[in-house]
Amino acid sequence: MKKVDVSVEEAKQILLDFFESDGYYLWRDNLEQSDNKNRISLLFETSKRDGADIRLLQYLPRIEGWSLSDSSVHDSNIFIEMVKKENHFRKYLFKLLHI
Questions:
Q1: Is residue 1 part of a domain?
Q2: 33-56 pLDDT, tens per residue?
């Protein structure tokens, strides 16, 4: 099975579609402020009367090559941060070949 490298823009769009389909909208995107292009930091807000639903974090879509680094839910906001996974096996081989 071939692994697909999902770019920052594609991963961000997957997350936007997921949250927008459940009634959340993007309030802040810290991608422009970040020097690290292997990280996505998004803050979503909802106008639902009961506020943000913490259970939504359990159903985040799996994005190939990305992992959830941090998340929090407060009042009507959901914050998520995802980082690109590193290929540790590739780093290990690189070290072996260049010692």
A1: no
A2: 556 678 899 999 999 989 999 999
14-43 in b/e form (b: 16+ CB < 10 A) is bbbebbeeeebeeeeeeeeeeeeeebbbbb
Residue span of the structural domain in which 73 resides: 8-97
pTM: 0.78
Residues of the chain with pLDDT under 50: 1
Q: In the sheet that 39-46 helps form, which strands lie side by side, from edge to edge?
A: 24-29, 39-46, 77-84, 66-74
Intra-chain end-to-end CA distance of the chain, in Å: 31
CATH, residue 73 = 3.30.1360
Name the phi and psi angles at 56, rounded to 5.
Answer: -60, -30
